[in-house]
Specification:
single chain; about 350 residues; ABC transporter involved in vitamin B12 uptake, BtuC; 15 helices; about 80% helix
């Protein structure tokens, strides 16, 4: 009875926080729209006509959808990855998705040129980038986890080494190409919300939503996995298979998200750890949704504030700075426990 009361109290508290977060998200959306329309028109001293408003919204709406789905999915994947690795300081980006994305863009420009249809066409470019990331990640999982069952530490080390090799190769190719192609690559791989490939939001959004939903619906499995390999097996969970399914979903989600908006490694780190501190629960049904909502708030409210204040620093840079600082804090905190 006491446990049931605690669960009900925890669920009620989570529902209240969710309600507050939804209100904050709605306010952030309105602030973002205001900063892109009325505030911008006032600064320029121009009247905001209906045609101008509609024209701005045709670009702002896909950006809002992209920020919402990308932020939510990144947080959900980060939570799932941390549960699988039993660590609060790791994120899926450490496997090297961002490096593969940069390497793919560099190779496309080096082989075909910045003016080629393969690079300039958002759909073709996206399919190639996401496809390469999925293939490489699945090859990594297949080769490493088949021989070293659930050896996630070795997988992370391999990912970090591969990331360094790809970045070195990409840097060399960028060094020997002409200045125009180099600038095109820098523009395409810069991680900013304004640089988002909004042309492919609507076709890609269902894939991202399905991937995130597939992870969330497995929340009970993640509750058991969080107990550790031995306990999970004793409770009847096929631990190795569930870890592989988890990594498959993460690889798909990270590939499509990175190809859309770039790598936001520290967004997931911040959102997940904030959710853990706020909700004080181990139930993944709450942690997934809570972390996702915090990530959406961070992206939309942060971008709205940047637009409103005309800040020169993009919100992604601010998130990375805060996330990096928080990561140092977590490392020091874990070190004290040891």
């Amino acid at each position: 009875m006491a446990r049931q009361r605690r669960v009900r109290a925890s669920s009620k508290r989570a529902a209240i926080i969710f309600g507050i977060l939804f209100i904050v998200i709605a306010a952030s959306v309105l602030l973002y729209i205001y900063s892109r329309t009325f505030a911008k028109a006032n600064r320029m001293g121009l009247p905001l006509t209906k045609f101008a408003f509609d024209s701005i919204m045709t670009r702002a709406l896909p950006a809002l959808i992209g920020m919402s789905i990308s932020g939510f999915l990144i947080a959900v994947m980060s939570q799932a990855f941390q549960t699988a690795t039993e660590s609060r300081i790791l994120t899926p980006s450490m496997i090297g998705f961002d490096s593969v994305f940069v390497g793919t863009q560099t190779l496309i420009v080096f082989l075909f040129g910045a003016g080629s249809k393969i690079f300039s066409n958002g759909y073709i470019n996206y399919l190639i980038s996401a496809g390469v990331m999925v293939i490489i990640s699945m090859l990594m999982y297949g080769m490493i986890l088949r021989k070293n069952r659930s050896n996630l530490v070795f997988l992370l080390m391999f990912g970090l080494v591969l990331s360094g090799i790809i970045r070195s190769g990409a840097s060399y190719l960028q060094l020997i190409m002409n200045a125009n192609d180099y600038m095109q690559i820098q523009a395409a791989t810069a991680v900013t919300v304004n640089n988002m490939n909004t042309r492919i939001i609507y076709p890609v959004a269902p894939i991202m939503a399905i991937t995130g939903l597939a992870i969330i619906l497995r929340h009970k499995t993640y509750d058991v996995i969080a107990l550790g390999r031995v306990n999970a097996k004793n409770l009847g969970v096929n631990y190795d298979r569930e870890i592989n399914v988890n990594l498959l979903l993460i690889s798909i989600g990270m590939s499509v998200t990175t190809a859309l908006i770039g790598s936001l490694a520290f967004l997931g780190l911040l959102a997940v750890n904030i959710a853990r501190e706020i909700f004080k629960t181990h139930r993944h049904s709450i942690l997934f949704i809570g972390a996702g909502l915090f990530a959406v708030v961070a992206l939309i409210f942060g971008q709205a504030t940047v637009e409103l204040l005309q800040a020169a620093v993009p919100i992604t840079t601010i998130i990375d700075l805060l996330g990096c600082s928080y990561m140092f804090y977590l490392i020091l905190k874990e070190n004290k426990k040891v």
